[in-house]
UniProtKB/TrEMBL annotation:
<feature type="domain" description="SIS">
    <location>
        <begin position="42"/>
        <end position="181"/>
    </location>
</feature>
<feature type="domain" description="SIS">
    <location>
        <begin position="214"/>
        <end position="359"/>
    </location>
</feature>
<keyword id="KW-0315">Glutamine amidotransferase</keyword>
<feature type="active site" description="For Fru-6P isomerization activity">
    <location>
        <position position="364"/>
    </location>
</feature>
<keyword id="KW-0677">Repeat</keyword>
<comment type="subunit">
    <text>Homodimer.</text>
</comment>
<protein>
    <recommendedName>
        <fullName>Glutamine--fructose-6-phosphate aminotransferase [isomerizing]</fullName>
        <ecNumber>2.6.1.16</ecNumber>
    </recommendedName>
</protein>
<keyword id="KW-0808">Transferase</keyword>
<keyword id="KW-0032">Aminotransferase</keyword>
<comment type="function">
    <text>Catalyzes the first step in hexosamine metabolism, converting fructose-6P into glucosamine-6P using glutamine as a nitrogen source.</text>
</comment>
<keyword id="KW-0963">Cytoplasm</keyword>
Length: 369
């Protein structure tokens, strides 16, 4: 049941702090050690890995993109991310020392299943991240890490996505821990930060009223563009996908630095552009670059909707609308910055009179190739 919400999607958005807490529970000890019991790979297997592929479709693919930033940074293992539907139609280079991580909420997505089988034929080890116990993808994988989001009913993925992002962090931290790494202190700090994320997501959810108002205002826009850098880039892609699938509106996500290489010509007077800003306490260059990107689009007439940390005053002069999120280390930011984009898409779709839970032409689980 919808538990008092108008849509399952709104209920599932609201369940995200719990979903994230449930996915972390029992997997992080107080001393910062990680335990992933369901990962049936030995420490030696994990030490032998010299390359990682992360493969998925749709929203799960956006979690895979986040995985690249986190896992490469923490482990120094090279990570390639690929859409499942593309992976097996080329000739990917993989062998016994390759780890293939497949991410699928349903565990039944045919494109992802076929990619998994292709990886196994090449003798790669396969780790599934899935929300569905006993589904086909986890069954056929060498190891499984379940997300504990609970059943997701709305076609558009929300809480499953956030828990997939948590799961890829856990895999990255586990690999870092087993292999011994350069960033040991940082990894311990990340473990602590992860435990605070449910609270931060709740704080974001508590401040969504202005986003709902903004959504009603944007319902008549022709298009909405989303920009981000680093892990903000997959967040931009996710914001755009949600808006396309629910509101049937033209929406595109871009790596902010790519805008000047073409897409900036899409911007007209009043075009809404949503920008997620990385923490000003992280790498200064990353933050500075996004501030210039906001100025660039604003100079072309864009209406800027800026998602930035509390206390980040550098962006304020260029924001037509400001959405504040609590301080979060750069790599973990998608767990908070995605939430307002989900709410925005849901409310714009509702304002346009669409069935948010059952968008046209879409199925919850895509079991055809
Ligand atoms: C979008 C959405 C889809 C799924 C995709 C993969 O909101 O839900 O893009 O993410 O079809 O599904 P799973 O994760 O079940 O393999």
């Amino acid at each position: 049941e919808k538990g008092g919400y108008d849509y399952f999607m709104l209920k599932e958005i609201a369940e995200q702090p719990q979903a994230v807490a449930d996915t972390l529970r029992g997997r992080l000890t107080d001393s910062g050690d990680l335990t992933l019991d369901e990962v049936r790979l030995t420490d030696q297997d994990l030490r032998d890995i010299d390359k990682i592929f992360v493969i998925a479709c749709g929203t799960s693919y956006h979690a895979a993109l986040v995985a690249k930033y986190a896992i490469e940074h923490w482990t120094r293992i090279s990570v390639e991310v690929e859409l499942a539907s593309e992976f097996r139609y080329r000739d990917p280079v993989l062998d016994r020392s390759t780890l293939v991580i497949v991410i699928s909420q349903s565990g039944e997505t045919m494109d992802t299943l076929m990619a998994l089988r292709h990886a196994k034929e090449q003798k790669a080890r396969v780790l599934a991240i899935s929300n569905t116990n006993g589904s086909t993808i986890p069954r056929e994988s060498d190891a499984v890490l379940y997300t504990h989001a609970g059943p997701e009913v709305a076609v558009a993925s929300t809480k499953a996505f956030l828990t997939q992002v948590v799961a890829v962090y856990l895999v990255g931290l586990l690999l870092a821990q087993v292999r011994g790494i350069k960033y040991a202190d940082e990894v311990a700090a990340v473990v602590q930060q992860l435990q605070k994320m449910p609270e931060k997501i709740s704080a974001v959810l508590a401040t969504m009223e202005p986003v709902r108002e903004l959504a009603r205002d944007l319902a008549s826009a022709q298009q909405v563009l989303f920009l981000g850098r680093h892990v903000g880039y997959p967040v931009a892609l996710e914001g755009a996908l949600k808006l396309k699938e629910l509101a049937y509106m033209h929406a595109e996500g871009f790596a902010a630095g790519e805008l000047k290489h073409g897409p900036i010509s899409l911007i007209e007077a009043g075009t809404p552009v949503v920008i997620t800003v990385p923490s000003p306490r992280g790498r200064a260059i990353l933050h500075d670059k996004i501030v210039s990107n906001i100025q660039e689009v604003r100079a072309r007439g864009a209406r800027t909707i800026v998602i930035a940390e509390e206390g980040d005053e550098a962006v304020a002069p260029y924001a037509d609308h400001m959405i504040r999120v609590p301080h979060t280390p750069t790599l973990l930011a998608p767990l908070v910055t995605t939430v307002p984009l989900q709410v925005l898409a849901c409310e714009i779709a509702a304002a346009r009179g669409h069935d948010v839970d059952q968008p046209r032409n879409l199925a919850k689980s895509v079991t055809v190739e």
